[in-house]
Amino acid sequence: MKNRKTANFYCRVCSSFFAVHLIFLCCVLFGSEKALADEVNVAVASNFKYTLQKISADFKVATGHDLKISSGSSGKLFAQIKHGAPYDVFLSADEKLPDLLIRDKTASSESAYIYALGKLVLISNIEPESGCENVIYSNRLKHLAIANSEIAPYGLAAKQVLQKLDLWQQLQSRLVRGENIAQTLQFVLTKNAQAGFVARSMLNTAMLNMGRQIDFDCIWDVPTGMYSAIKQKMVVLNKAKVKPAAWMFIQYMQSEAAKKTIESLGYDVL
Predict the structure, then answer these.
(1) How far apart are CA 187 and CA 196, in angstroms?
(2) Are 82 and 34 in contact (CB under 8 A)?
(3) 3-state helix, strand, coil in the chain (%, to 5)
(4) From CA 69, how far away is CA 100, in angstroms rounded?
(5) Integer Cα distance of 182 and 180 in angstroms
(6) Is residue 213 very low, low, confident or very high in pLDDT (cuts 50, 70, 90)?
(7) How far apart are CA 219 and CA 232, in angstroms?
(8) Fewer Cβ within 10 Å of end Cβ, the chain: N or C?
(9) What is the model's pLDDT at position 208?
């Protein structure tokens, strides 16, 4: 009898032991996504900041991972990366800077992806007698805002347009340069500049942020043939190559859900 009780006791202990481990295994299998939730440090060009914030919320729902977003001009972010800034992923407003990071073995070539195609527009607080493109010939134009062409791809695109129109040298005294495309838009919104070249996407996001229509006297969608294609590329930096969440973000940016958001906010996608 004593031996039978002892055997029953051990059976109950063993059953409890396996039950506990079964529950643990289920928690690992079904709760691993949340248990392994991570944070991805993302450096993003100013023009794409708001779009990325929208994508970030969906990415969190889909994967459990967070995006920590830092924005600025592509050139400044590039310089920070070269000086060791703790970013995992870089979303540039061009493809040249990510390609330089790949060439220098600072970023992974396998991760490179063109996530958006940017569009340039001219916005104006003064109305010309004829088409909006003629604002830049007006005597009423005292200040024309562009992003710094040395560090901001949209600024370089604006410079190319003015060069094509043989106005680059002529307008030098009237140019006001924003550190990035967001500051350039602000110059026109506050009417410190009568007109400016900005990203088409910035108009969409500015209206969403302000909760109302932004009234400009005219808007000119600059023909894409007047400037080099603005191919916005992203890469995973080598220091984050072993970080699964960084690669999941790259994959998510290629999803139909992400592309739909990107297109809805003023970009084209490949």
Answers:
(1) 8
(2) no
(3) 50, 20, 30
(4) 22
(5) 6
(6) low
(7) 23
(8) N
(9) 57
Q: Which two tokens stand for residue 183?
A: 């500051």
Helices (H) and strands (E) in the chain, counts: 9, 10
Q: For residue 63, give its domain range.
A: 37-117+231-264
User: Which among 227, 246, 234 has a CA at the least distance from the CA of 270?
Assistant: 234
Q: What is the dihedral of CA 183, 205, 214, 226, to 10 degrees?
A: 70
Residues 123-142: tens digit of each pLDDT: 999 988 788 999 999 999 99
Reference 222, options 263, 174, 163, 169; nearest CA is 163
Q: Which amino acid makes up residue 52?
A: L
Residues 143 and 210 in one domain: yes
pTM over 0.85: no
For residue 120, the cross-strand partners are: 199
Residue type, position 230, single letter: I
> Is 26 within a domain?
no
How far, rounded to the nearest angstrom, does the alpha carbon of residue 56 sit from its chain's CA centroid? 10
Same domain, 63 and 185: no
- Domains in the chain: how many in total? 2
122 & 220 share domain: yes
- With cut-offs at 50, 70 and 90, classify the pLDDT of residue 49: very high
Cα 108-50-259 angle, rounded to 5 deg: 60
Q: Is residue 2 part of a domain?
A: no
User: Is residue 91's pLDDT more than 80?
Assistant: yes
For residue 192, being part of any structural domain is answered with: yes
**CATH number of 56's domain:** 3.40.190.10
Residue 11 domain flag: no
